[in-house]
Amino acid sequence: MRLWLTLTAALLAGPALAQDNALQPSPTWEDLRGAVLDLDTDPPLDAAALDLEAPTRAHDAAIVPIRLTQAPDALAIGALTLVIDENPAPVAAEYTFGDALMPLDFEVRVRVDSYSDVRAIGTRDDGAQVMAGRFVKAAGGCSAPAGKDMASVRETMGQMRWRSASEEGQTIGTLMIRHPNFSGLQRDQLTLLSIPAHFIDRLDVRQGEDLLFTMEAGISISEDPVFRFRYNPNGQPIHVRVEDTNGNQWAETFAADVAGVNKS
Question: How far is residue 1 from each of residues 18, 72, 86, 101, 127, measured CA to CA in Å?
């Protein structure tokens, strides 16, 4: 567990590279914009309203850290779609965010299958949309071998851990979920047979009855997903519900007044 938390902290402390990897012209996006997101034109880029940080060149294409942020006075974003243009399933995830996460500072790890723009399209409270993104050099993230053998997958799948800590006067929550998130493009390293797609497709996180965030996801969220986010605590327990594409469901509740790891 200590190793997992150490790796998590290193990966999600925030992409350290200078953010000079602006979005590039993308014929793929020209098709996706209308066909998938029903957009006629690109939403405006406004780093104060919404920014996306990502490494220029990924250290590991299967666990690329993505950080979404807003300026302190930005209008709240209630819904957001994360798109990786060149992935086999470009829509990585669709999020809804509660008021407690505003202004947004939210991190997740994704798979990037080839050199690609990674972009977020957010819908603000006033109904306007805004876009942010970076061009990431990575390859093979969706077909990268799983990090654990199948016996370990069966033993640990669905386990969760939650951490809450104070950083520079802000409360930071970290949610860790054990799940292989098989993409359908990987092979069992022992049998060399293809592993069927099996991934978390729904996630609901609340404090008491108040929404923190929900996620509807595809194959691009990394194995053993980790979510790190700033939030305004209300003193209520943290409730997490997870569903995957095989129909499995897990639920955990974590005490609100315990800093550090609440559950093994």
Answer: 31, 34, 34, 27, 42
